[in-house]
Amino acid sequence: MKLLRIALLSLILITTYNCKEAKKETNETMDEMEETVEEVTQEVEMISFNMEPKSDSGVVGEVSFVSENGMVSMVGTFSGLTPGEHAIHIHQKADCSAADGTSTGGHWNPTAEPHGKWGQEEGFHRGDIGNFTADEDGNAQIEFSTDLWCLGCEDENKNLIGKAVIVHQGVDDFTTQPTGAAGSRVSCTGIIQ
Questions:
Q1: pLDDT at residue 28 in the model
Q2: Is the pLDDT confidence value at 148 over 60?
Q3: What is the mean pLDDT of residues 41-56?
Q4: What is the spatial distance between Cα 193 and Cα 46, in angstroms, rounded to a whole number?
Q5: Distance from C-alpha of 80 to C-alpha of 87, rounded to nearest angstrom
Q6: Domain 45-190: which CATH number of 2.60.40.200, 3.60.21.10, 2.60.120.10, 2.40.30.160
Q7: Cα–Cα distance between 70 and 67 in angstroms, integer?
Q8: Eight-class DSSP state of 191
Q9: Does residue 26 register a pLDDT over 80?
Q10: DSSP for 33-94?
Q11: pLDDT band at residue 115 using 50, 70 and 90 as cut-offs
Q12: In what order do the strands lie in the sheet with 71-79?
């Protein structure tokens, strides 16, 4: 009888211990899942803006920025362009009030580099996106991604908020300082939250 009591008591202790361990593992798993959901929710941000014509051009479009896992991707679609290549840059100020777009200031260049082609060893502005091509109907799309930009972070060398997107009439030659000789500003939008 005494042996039966000891066996029964041992069985109760083992069952209680196993239940506590299972509950602890379930709670840990739930905590991990909640942290993962929070990380995914915090890491993806999207903002989108309509481009407005400048310099009597009629060039319109939309630019979207998506920030995810330390990368910012930009997609721009445009219409009303002259067929051929056009430059696109990030400029210093989200101010498109001037009829010719000059209220945006110069290219965004927080690291004081020379103007150049993106990724060029000699240097480039953080706003030096490059060129894209409009078809014979004046429509175009550009996609660009980098880890050198962010949306609303505290690093002013990366933060796009408060800057502007400018589409130029001409082509960026990647050498003329400080603009790339890209010509007039034909479309503009401010990057604001």
A1: 64
A2: yes
A3: 88
A4: 10
A5: 15
A6: 2.60.40.200
A7: 7
A8: -
A9: no
A10: HHHHHHHHHHH-EEEEEEEEE-TT---EEEEEEEEETTEEEEEEEEESPPSEEEEEEEES-S
A11: confident
A12: 128-134, 84-91, 164-168, 185-190, 45-53, 60-68, 71-79, 140-146
pLDDT value of position 47: 94
pTM: 0.77
Strand partners, 91: 107, 164
Domain ranges within the chain, ordered by starting residue? 1-43, 45-190
Q: How confident is the model at residue 30 (pLDDT cuts 50, 70, 90)?
A: low
Nearest-angstrom CA–CA distance, 185 and 59? 10
Q: Taken in order 75, 80, 97, 182, is the CA torsion positive or negative? A: positive
Residue 37 in this model has a pLDDT that exceeds 60:
no
- Structure token digits, residue 158: 């990366």
